[in-house]
Amino acid sequence: MTSSMIKHSLILVLLLFGFSMVSAQDVRYYKLTRKMENGKSSTNVSGGQFITFTGNLCFESDYHGVGVNHGTMKLNVAYSNSQYSLYQGSSYWGKNADFKFNADKSVLNVVLENGDVYVYKRGTAPAGQTTCSLVRKPSSSSSNNGGSVVVPPPSVYQGWGGYDNVGGRDSYNGGSSNNGNVTTPQQHKCGLCNGTGEVINNDGISFGNTKYCNKCGKTVPDSHYHTTCPSCKGKGWW
Predict the structure, then answer these.
(1) Angle at 80 between CA 78 and CA 83, to 5 degrees
(2) Is the pTM of this model over 0.70?
(3) Which of 53, 90, 143, 170 has the fewest CB atoms inside 10 Å of its own CB, making it the most exposed?
C-alpha cells in the first residue's frame, strides 16, 4: 500500500470515528417547570436547558449538541440505581450542583448546595430557541444569581425520591406540604454516612493487596479510603 493510500485510509477512519461520535450524542431539551427556594415551591418559572448525553457524560449545550462552556457532568455509578441517575461535575451552577434524572430521563432535578430545588421536564424547545436559557457569561463568577435552579442535597443519593417523580415522589422528603409550600425541614442524621460525614470508597485498583483501616477496624483492600460524604457535605446531618 502506498503512502498516499495509507493517508487516505487514515483520513477515512478519522471521519468515520467523528461521525460515530456525533451520532452517539443525544441532545434533549428540558423545560423548567418548578422551583423550590427557601423551602417554598413555585411554578412561576420559565426557560429551559439543552442537555447533550454521550456515553456516561452529559453537558449543557445548544440544540446542535455543541457545549456552552459550562463543563461536563459524569455519571456517578455508586449513587445511581434503577430509579434514577446521578451526574456530578461542572455545570451552569458551578461544581457543587448535582443533576438527578429519573429512570427514563424525562425529569431532571438540579440539586444545589444551598438546598434549593429546580425541576426540569423533558419537552420540545420553543420555536426559535437554539441554546440554553441560562448561559454563564465568560467574565462572571460561578454564582447562583440570575434565576439559577437548585435542589436539596439531603437524601439525593439514598432514601430520597426527588421532585416530580424523580425516584417516584412528588414532594420534599423531610418537610410537610402546605398549600404548595414546603415547611423548613428538621435536622436529621444523614442516611448515607450514618452521621459520620464520610463514606467509603473502593474505586482504586488494589491488585489483591490489603491494609488495616483504623476507622473501620478491619483489613480492607489497599484501594480503600474514606472521603467526604457527598450527600451531607461532611456535616453528618441535613
Answers:
(1) 155
(2) no
(3) 143
